[in-house]
Design brief:
Layout (H helix, E strand, L loop, with lengths): L1 E9 L10 E8 L2 E2 L3 E4 L7 E8 L6 E9 L7 E9 L5 E10 L3 E6 L12 H17 L2 E2 L8 E2 L15 H23 L9 H5 L10 H9 L3 H10 L7 E2 L11 H8 L5 H6 L3 E5 L10 E2 L2 E2 L6 E6 L5 E7 L10 E2 L5 H42 L5 H6 L6 H11 L6 H5 L4 H14 L2 H4 L1 H7 L9 H25 L2 H5 L2 H14 L15 H23 L2 H5 L22 H7 L3 H14 L20 H27 L19
Antiparallel strand pairs: 1-5, 1-7, 2-3, 2-4, 2-6, 6-9, 7-8, 10-11, 12-13, 13-16, 14-15, 16-17, 17-18
Helix pairs in contact: 2-21, 8-12, 8-17, 8-18, 15-18, 15-22
This protein binds fe (ii) ion (FE2).
């Protein structure tokens, strides 16, 4: 007689328990136990202990089968894990973290994944094959729009597998916010005006009542006119992805030395400043000829500006010339800081409007949300739960499929929030994202290379660069440790068919097989694998936080991030005024509509999981758990450094604080 001690744990979330009946079968390399009942009442956050008796020793336990059935009502169960102690005292751990629904049997593999596929028992190979087959049926690709990364083939969050849906807590939280948003939208229809703001001060009234969240918007309202703050936002604002060093002026932007001599100061010249790496450029060429839409039946306008910036002797970055189209000429003057106040301010506001589109649709939607979804789907389809890379990556896709499905239903759909509140047509939105994907390179997704290629290695007060590089380093070190532990050499990387299928699936569906992107379609070395995994985790966590968390802070004061422009860009100087600016910015109700979306999208929900937090303990070996503790300690050091810097700053940069950076794209 062999006696096995079994412990079965139910998950922590409130709806995890069940009144349905659960039983278990132990599967060893030498045989199986009989099916043994665990209980017909399992409560959340509890563990059940039982004894399984077998006529003979089962050998090493490689699988457990969990069976769920019911007499009457269905009641789903969330199993956290199962632990089995063999007669010789060996402890086997089976991390599960799955919902069991209906009458079903689920097989869970023993957690240690050190042995890769080659030396597996036949029964485990079959288990892997069946698991992937089921996942590939549940998670299928579809095209949402031409030229976009492919996405999950569902039309509503109701069709999602329970294992990727919002939990009850988050759904309650989020639905509350959505109801609030809908109510405000209705109010905006009846009470708010489809007319211009009467003054700049009136715009502040919209966030003056958001207690605790008004500090940064108030700062923005006080400083938005300043060239220093305008330049600062290209370094540390919502869109830190567009600034690059300018070594030579493009022909389409004919700024002359005389135009900017006054802005450069002292005895220097444009050529000299350019040669010494102190001239920078932002080019929104990607917006050229993107179709503009209508709001309240009135035509909106989109520009594709260019902006030249200079790093002054004090280290600050300031704009020195702006052209509001890609075609120079008499009707597209180059605006300068020496122009009349409202001419210059209006030109800068047009740049902020272009940056709104670039930020929301490219830096945020495309380069974090949509790519994260492609990474998530490929992982679910190609890596079984016992694969070490599944265990590494799955926390970084927490709720991504749910939030993106929701975004396709209410945010970026025809008639959705972006369609109604921004100046682009739905076709324009689709075209812009497709153009964006055609320009994405692997290097631009890897922050050390991206910053190097953009020539941004030296600017002071570049908090995004400092924090992003530290986080990249911490993630890379963590990933490198895991890759070495599980693969041990380059040959094992190249010989892992599941890993190769995963990489190819991302290349094909996320990047549409475009080889010129530099995105690898296979990974042959530990170094290449480490870099790719670091990019995936960084994109889903840090990069998303950098472009997501400040949306309300920096967008609440509408002139700083207008979602639409109601008049065409000025074709001559000397005509701008405060009234023209007010008549160009979005109307009161459009502003309110967008702001509620920004509040929602930069909210922190109750069950957020931050970088380095892994409440699901999927790794059962000692070394990965040690690497996780080391990663957490490094993140704590980074957090302390950021908070120390913020303590001294007039405007804190906290978007990459690991304590504010979620593990995944979940909002
Ligand atoms: Fe987001």
């Amino acid at each position: 007689m062999a006696v096995y001690k079994v412990q079965v744990a139910t998950g922590d979330i409130s709806e995890a328990g069940t009144t349905n009946c659960i039983s278990i079968t132990l599967v060893g390399s030498q045989g199986e136990s009989s099916r043994t009942t665990i209980s017909c009442l399992l409560l959340p956050r509890t563990e059940k202990h039982l004894t399984v008796r077998c006529a003979r020793d089962l050998g090493p336990i490689v699988l457990v089968r969990l069976h769920k059935w019911r007499l009457f009502l269905e009641d789903a169960w969330f199993c956290r894990d199962v632990r089995v102690t063999a007669p010789d005292g060996t402890l086997y751990r089976f991390p599960c973290y799955l919902w069991l629904e209906g009458v079903t049997t689920v097989e869970v593999r023993e957690g240690s994944a050190k042995k890769l596929a080659d030396d597996e028992l036949e029964m485990l190979r079959e288990h892997r094959r069946k698991e992937l087959q089921a996942r590939q049926a549940a998670f299928r690709w579809k095209n949402f729009a031409e030229g976009w990364p492919r996405c999950l083939n569902v039309d509503s969050v109701l069709e999602l597998d329970s294992n990727v849906q919002f939990s009850c807590v988050r759904a309650t939280n989020f639905n509350g916010l959505l109801i609030f948003q809908a109510a405000t939208h209705l109010l905006s229809g009846f009470l708010l005006r489809a007319t211009s703001w009467s003054s700049l001060d009136e715009m502040r009234s919209i966030f003056s009542r958001t207690r605790g969240r008004e500090i940064v918007p108030e700062y923005v309202a006080r400083h938005w006119r300043e060239d220093d703050f305008f330049g600062y936002q290209f370094l540390n604002g919502n869109n830190p992805t567009v600034l690059r060093r300018c070594a030579a002026l493009p022909d389409k932007f004919p700024v002359t030395p005389e135009m900017v001599a006054g802005s450069l100061g002292g005895d220097t010249s444009l050529d000299r400043e350019m040669a010494e790496g102190r001239i920078f450029i932002v080019d929104y060429e990607i917006l050229e000829d993107i179709p503009a839409g209508t709001i309240h039946g009135r035509r909106q306008h989109v520009a594709a500006p260019l902006c030249l910036l200079h790093q002054g002797a004090d280290g600050h970055l300031r704009p020195i010339a702006i052209q509001l189209s890609q075609r120079p000429g008499p009707s597209s003057p180059i605006f300068l800081p020496t122009d009349a106040e409202w001419d210059w301010l209006l030109a800068k506001t047009w740049v902020r409007n272009a940056d709104f589109y670039s930020h929301q649709l490219l830096a945020h939607l495309l380069r974090t949300h949509l790519l994260a979804e492609a990474f998530a789907i490929a992982t679910l389809r190609q890596l079984p739960s016992c694969h070490p890379l599944f265990k590494l990556l799955i926390p970084h896709f927490h709720l991504t499929l749910h939030i993106n499905t929701l975004a396709r239903s209410v945010l970026i759909n025809p008639g959705g929030i972006i369609d109604r509140g921004s100046g682009l047509t739905h076709e324009g939105l689709q075209l812009l994202v497709a153009r964006g994907l055609a320009q994405v390179t692997f290097a631009s997704l890897c922050v050390p290379e991206d910053l190097g290629q953009r020539g941004l290695g030296h600017l002071p007060q570049h908090h995004y660069r400092e924090d992003a590089l530290r986080l990249w380093g911490a993630i890379e070190s963590f990933v490198s440790g895991l890759v070495s532990f599980y693969y041990g050499g380059d040959a094992a990387v190249g010989a892992d068919p599941e890993l190769q299928a995963w990489a190819l699936e991302i290349f094909t569906n996320g990047f549409l097989g475009r080889a010129s992107s530099g995105v690898p379609s296979s990974l042959q070395t530990m170094a290449a694998l480490t870099k790719f995994l670091t990019m995936v985790i960084f994109t889903c966590s840090a990069q998303h936080a950098a472009v997501n968390n400040g949306q309300y802070d920096l967008g609440a004061f509408v002139p700083n991030a207008p979602s639409s422009m109601r008049h065409p860009p000025p074709a001559a100087k000397g005509k701008a005024s405060l009234q023209q600016l007010l008549d160009t910015l979005p109307e009161v109700d459009t502003t309110a509509h967008i702001l509620v979306a920004l509040i929602l999208l930069s909210s922190r929900l109750e069950d957020a999981r931050f970088l380095g937090q892994f409440p699901e303990q999927r790794f059962t070996e000692a070394e990965p758990r040690r690497l996780i503790r080391r990663f957490q300690a490094r993140l704590e050091e980074i957090r302390e450094g950021i908070e120390e810097r913020n303590h001294r700053a007039a405007l804190r940069y906290n978007y990459l604080n690991p304590g504010e950076t979620e593990n995944s794209v979940s909002i």
